[in-house]
Amino acid sequence: MARVSAFYRSTVGKKVLMAITGFVLLGFVVVHMIGNLKAFMGAEYFNTYAEALRALGAPFFGHGQALWLFRIVLLGSVLIHAFFGIQLWLVSNRARPIGYEKTPYLQTTAASLTMRWGGLLIGGYVVYHLMHLTIGNVNPDFIPGDAYHNLVVGFESTTAAAAYVIAVFVLALHLYHGTWSALQTLGLNHPKYNSWRRGIAAVLAIVLLVGFATVPVAVQLGVLK
């Protein structure tokens, strides 16, 4: 227990926990993007897919309960990720109580700022996104159970579509820095691998940005209707 407590209190321990929860969330983001792209297969297919998610684990947990358990795990990962992120930021501030006279425009500094404020923006947008397309209380044309209709009608609003694209752009920046940083934390830190680490992070960020943005753009262009 003493070792566990020491690990928890150390900056390395906090970074490892952030990396682990970050990869849990990354896995969800990838699966969510793939699910969104199923909208191009038509309303019936997309609604069947959405219903299959709601029925996931029904024999053991009841209809829709497994999905909510999964959401609770995701929420826990988000809270742990954010909690340790804030703690590390506070530790960094305490280590340098007096700021630089002139801020050096280093990549790490820019990425750190992107991670901090980007995380807050992503968190705020996720709340709106759930209210818009899952709960439906901010979508006046929301029809419970008709996921395809809600998706298309939701993104017919240019403002909603633009906000979504901006949010996924911020998410892509967050994932780019987070992925290569997490891999470094978990031990993949060597001159032989560093360029690959950044390349993987960049490709992943671009794929997710394009994959997520494709759906609202397709609705705006009338491809999905």
Layout of helices and strands:
Elements: H1 2-9, H2 11-37, H3 43-54, H4 58-61, H5 65-95, H6 107-135, H7 147-155, H8 158-185, H9 191-220
Task: Please describe what this structure looks like.
The structure is a single chain. It is globular, with a radius of gyration of 20 Å. The protein has nine helices and no strands. It is an all-alpha fold and 225 residues long. 79% of the residues lie in helices and 0% in strands.
In short:
The chain is mainly α and 225 residues long. It has helices at residues 2-9, 11-37, 43-54, 58-61, 65-95, 107-135, 147-155, 158-185, 191-220.
Name its key features.
225 residues, globular, 3 helical TM bundles of succinate and fumarate reductases, mainly alpha
Reported for the largest beta sheet, the result is: none
List unreliable stretches of 5+ residues: 103-107
CATH topology: 3 helical TM bundles of succinate and fumarate reductases
**β-sheet strand percentage:** under 5%
CATH architecture: Up-down Bundle
Which percent range fits the helix content? over 70%
